[in-house]
Amino acid sequence: MSSAWTPPALGARATWTRTFSADEVEAFAGISGDRNPLHFDVEFAAATRLGRLVVQGGLTTSLFNALVAMRLPGPGSVFLHQEWDYPAPVYVGDTVTAEAEVIEARADKPITRLRCVARREDGTEVLRGECLVYTMLPATR
């Protein structure tokens, strides 16, 4: 027997904010292996249309890992599916706020669909998409 599922309300929202440092970019590279010169080589990045060092996309999407697991739908939640677009870069030192909104929540299963948008502190949208989330419910005794 498991705990009862109470779906989040349609339109419910939550946010998660983080400032990305060079140390975090380095740590992510150590985990992922992503050592693209766009993230580490100042001269290389300056010579591209981006103009300066950018954060790995995986760090940007990680904001939604935290948001989903900690706030909406909350503990026990894992991704079933994600679709992401990256309309603008996140630069090293940027503060980014991720926001998720419930656009569908099943009553029969602990499944929630979220519309997701992340913005830099200047309001520029840096990530948008949708994700489908399953919330693991602990067994009751």
Structure overview:
By secondary structure, the chain is of the alpha+beta class. It is 24% helix and 34% strand. A five-stranded antiparallel sheet has the order 1-3-4-5-2, with helices on one face. A hairpin with a 4-residue loop joins strand 4 (111-120) and strand 5.
Q: Proportion of β residues?
A: 25-35%
Largest sheet, spatial ordering of strands: 1-3-4-5-2
Q: Characterize the largest beta sheet: strand count, sense, and whether it forms a barrel.
A: 5 strands, antiparallel
Quote the distance from N terminus to C terminus.
8 Å
Mean pLDDT: 96
Total E-strand runs: 5
The topology string of helices and strands comes to EHHHHEEEE
Q: What coarse outline follows from CA principal-axis ratios? A: elongated
State Rg: 17 Å
Which structural class fits the helix and strand makeup? alpha+beta
List low-pLDDT spans: none
Number of helices: 4
Please bin the fraction of helical residues: 10-25%
Key structural traits:
4 helices, alpha+beta, 141 residues, single chain
Task: Please give a quick description of this structure.
This protein has 141 residues and is of the alpha+beta class. The chain contains 4 helices and 5 strands.
